[in-house]
Fold this sequence. Notes:
The chain has helices at 6-26, 35-47, 51-76, 82-103, 105-114, 121-134, 139-157, 165-178, 184-211, 216-237, 240-254, 259-263, 270-275, 279-289, 298-311.
Amino acid sequence: MWGPTLDEEYVTHSWNLLKRAIQAIQHKNNPGLGFEELYRAVYTMVQHKHGDRLYNGLRELIREHLEVVRVRIIESMNSGVFLETMAEAWSDHTVAMVNIREYMMYMDRVYVAQNPSALHVYDLGLELFRTEILKNNGIGDRLIFIRDRQLDLIKSYRKSDEINWHGMKSLCEMLISLGIDNRFVYEEYFEKALLKGTHEYYREFCETLLAGENDACYYLEQVETAIRDEANRASRYLDKETEVKILQVVANVMVADHMSTIVYMPNGGVKFMLQHKRVEDLTRIFRIFKHITESQGVPVSGRKVLLKAVGE
């Protein structure tokens, strides 16, 4: 029986060095060896045509580590610290993957570039977190449950209650990152529900305002206040793209959908503003208009109503 060749022994030795270093990093310990020695081990394996072994071995180490992490997350699901545990697990995982990526630069640059199905090291870590954590043991469902509770808190906060903004920001950042090169995970798990809840909240809010004795000047002041408050809240936990969408929802629901009512309100509608040269109030309308989207022609028709009033 033939024994292993020198090349095989050296590759095995190289992998064992890397394996111990990766596991140390995953446990937030020093890898034990210098950068040059670990980089050389990666270089050796790739150069000796053992890139598959290196890549698959790394993937298996990450998967095995996430299995342990998953147990900790599952244990937190009914203990009141689920969101905090998820945030900590995510932070630890991303820090570890950044450090592992440093040693695996040569594999990223050569092996991954030559194998279209292979993911870059950091993206591999994101993909495995998504499959091993988010899509296992009801963790994703629990995350949706927590999301719904957080959205309820956001609704309450619009009525002056407090909310854990740091937890919300961590959740959003994690979901955005898990999409790797798109926003699908974030949109499915959070953004769509947030925008829907915002739409429903402001639909009820503006119906209450319009049902009272308020004139258009007061109503539009409330709209601008709502937009300003939403912008302040969004800046604390949302990315800019979602912030823009939130402000569009508020403007669409409160103004574009009720333009005719606002224009023709008796004793205080837009016609009244024009006739009495209420420049500040008219300026407010155009400030609000910049947030209105042109989907389904809503603001276009709204502008037509407004322009018609100007010409009358």
